[in-house]
Structures are given as structure tokens and as C-alpha cells.
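Table S2 (text version). Query chain:
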Amino acid sequence: MNDDKTGGELVAQHAELIGRVTLMWSDIHAQAGQLFEDFCASAEARKRYWETQSDHTQRQMLLCEGSFALQEYPDLWERLEKTLADIDHSAGDRNAAVHTYWAIDLPAGKILAHRRVPSHKRLRPDFEAQFNELLNKLSDHWISLFDLRIDYFDRKKGLPPSTKVGTSH
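Corresponding C-alpha cell output:
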């Protein structure tokens, strides 16, 4: 943390960081939901997907639909499996941001995990570094899902596999 910041600036910075984690997680699941809709022909199944409250269950539903939709594209299937596994792995840190009871320590001028409520088991003492690292991972996950969707539609149109430079796939 930067010691030159005022207490109010640190509170705002921490609140923004927690909020950014939340928003990026939502963006990832909107992208996952779009893939589910792309893969699934059933209006009833799409409705059930959006009514499902557990994002983990939604990811499992996407994996199931993807196993059928991507049968002709094993490389895309592998990317979907890997990305969803990576998202599952990031869920604990996201849960630490969202499910921790936060409090503002006025004398110190920063946000801390509430002292009277047990912290989330994945919350690290330097949550600022933890959540900045998480944001980078979440950004990569979003890009992976976005690129997968583009590549899926390109393949359906008969275009060759992507040869993007500088990507992990």
C-alpha cells in the first residue's frame, strides 16, 4: 500500500478494488451465459440456466452444453474446459472479496475484514495484492471466453482455426 494516501483515499481505493472484482466476475458470467445461449437450442434450458442461482452450477451447465456443441472442434472444447477450470480455481478469491464482512477502520483510514466476524478462509492479509492479482486472472478468463465465442462462430462459418499472436490458445 502507498503510505502517501490519505485514509479517505485508501478507503475509496479498497472499496473500488472489491467492486471491480465483483463487476469483473459478473462480466465473466455474462460471457459464459452468452456462450450457453450460443450452444443451446432449447429455450427451456436457456431459461433454466438464467434462473439458476449458483454460478458454479451455471458453469457446469455450460460445460455440458459445450461438450455437445464443440464435438467437431476439440481444440475449442479443451479451451472451454481449461477456462472453466481456471474460473473455478479463481472462485475462492472472488468469494473472499464478496463474502467477507468488511469494516472501515476510521483511525487507520482503511477497509479491513470485520474483527468480530470470521474472515473468509481464502482472504489473505494483503488482500489488496490478492485482489489485484485476481483482477488480472479474471480479465484473462473473460478474454478467453470472448475469444472462444469468436472462434466458435468463425469455425461454424468454415473459417480456419485462429492464429492470434500473443494469446494463450
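Notes on Table S2: Helices lie at 7-39, 43-51, 55-69, 74-99, 127-156. Residues 7-39 form the longest helix (33 residues).
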